[in-house]
Amino acid sequence: MKPELVEKIKNNPEYIRLVKIRTSYALRLSVLMLLVYFTFILTIAFKPELLAKTLSEGSVITVGIPIGILVIIFAFVLTGLYTKRANSEFDDLTNKIKDSIREGK
User: Fold this and answer.
1) Between 72 and 105, where is the model more confident?
2) Which residue stretches of the chain are H helix?
3) Among residues 83, 75, 76, 94, which one has the least CA distance to residue 32?
4) Across the chain, what does the average pLDDT equal?
5) Distance CA 5, CA 58 (A)
6) For an engineered disulfide with 93, which of 16, 18, 35, 54 has Cβ 3.0 to 4.6 Å away?
7) How far is the CA of 14 from the CAs of 4, 25, 85, 87, in angstroms?
8) Measured between alpha carbons, how far is 65 from 61 in angstroms, rounded to an integer?
């Protein structure tokens, strides 16, 4: 890619807006995932008896197993949320940027 084109894109107000919105959203989702994950890990480390309780009398499944599964599902949900927004709002902004560069604005 030509350096002039790169500079033109980097200075485009829509590109600056896209980068800001996308970075902010990704950061919020990342912090949320880290909070859930480290809460789970720190519970395992410092209060394992909370997760070691069985679900019911005579059960071999502990509370920690469904919670661990929920942590994994939560990661998939966050990925889905990001993908949905990326395929709509972020792609629309990207297309606006491409169109404005093609038009020479």
Assistant:
1) 72
2) 3-10, 13-46, 48-52, 64-85, 91-103
3) 75
4) 95
5) 68
6) 18
7) 17, 16, 16, 17
8) 7
